[in-house]
Automatic annotation (TrEMBL):
PANTHER family: TRANSCRIPTIONAL REGULATORY PROTEIN NARL-RELATED, TWO-COMPONENT RESPONSE REGULATOR. GO terms for biological process: phosphorelay signal transduction system; regulation of DNA-templated transcription. One of its GO terms (molecular function) is DNA binding. SMART domains: HTH_LUXR, REC. Pfam families: GerE, Response_reg. The modification 4-aspartylphosphate is found at D54. It comes from Nocardia fluminea. This is LuxR family two component transcriptional regulator. Residues 3-121 form the Response regulatory domain. Residues 148-213 form the HTH luxR-type domain.
Length: 219
């Protein structure tokens, strides 16, 4: 059973998502919050698998709520999925850097929304190749001071190769095909790289790959 926390300041949005989710046998909405501060508190109380958080809210916004969840060791099993009205708007990159597993646009088709929730619950990032390319473009056009590349020297050659492919938006199966290894081995390389780079999930791994200089974006 996937346990989900809804965090959005608009009651109509929350009720719409709840109505969609509650008819699914494998998803349970455990709590709702109207702002980020309440959302973090409820995350600590209920320990959901997924926290579906609106990016723009009063009191504490979605980015800060994501940051607080990501920083709390007790919430390491909570996958944050950001809700936005505009796709890759000006806040999404910061949300991913803060620890979000991915993001969804509010006008997403119901079937795609449910699939995305299940994908996030498995620990996979909600970053399709097209979204990854836009994320890279965002990084290139608004460069930031790169942090020290701590952990890069600990990666094996194969782990580095896997990280580069993750940063290109490839799935484990696609990485396996490109590296001529089994999907299980590809997943192992990715997971070990995440551990060494202290990335919560694949979304953060993508951001770290570019910010560390392991992958150089090209215009």
């Amino acid at each position: 059973m996937i346990r989900l926390l809804l965090v959005d300041d608009q009651p109509l949005i929350r009720s719409g998502f709840r109505a969609l989710l509650e008819i699914e046998d494998d998803i349970e909405v455990v709590a709702e919050a109207a702002d980020g501060r309440e959302g973090v508190e409820l995350a600590r109380t209920h320990l959901p698998d997924i926290a579906l958080i609106d990016i723009q809210m009063p009191v504490v916004d979605g980015i800060e709520a994501t940051r607080r969840i990501a920083a709390d060791p007790a919430l390491s099993g909570v996958h944050v999925v950001i809700l936005t009205n505009y796709g890759l708007d000006e806040y999404v990159f910061d949300a991913l850097r803060a620890g979000a597993a991915g993001f969804l646009v509010k006008d997403i088709e119901p079937e795609d929304f449910l699939h995305a929730i299940r994908v996030a619950a498995r620990g996979d990032a909600l970053l399709a190749p097209s979204i990854t390319r836009r994320l890279i473009h965002r990084y290139v056009t608004q460069p930031r001071t790169p942090p020290p590349g701590a952990g890069l020297d600990e990666l094996t050659t194969r782990e580095r190769e896997a990280v580069v492919l993750v940063a290109q938006g490839l799935s484990n199966d696609e990485i396996a095909g490109r590296m001529v290894i089994s999907p299980h081995t590809a997943k192992t390389h990715v997971n070990r790289a995440m551990t060494k780079l202290h990335a919560r999930d694949r979304a953060q791994l993508v951001v770290l790959a570019y910010e560390s200089g392991l992958v150089v974006p090209r215009l």
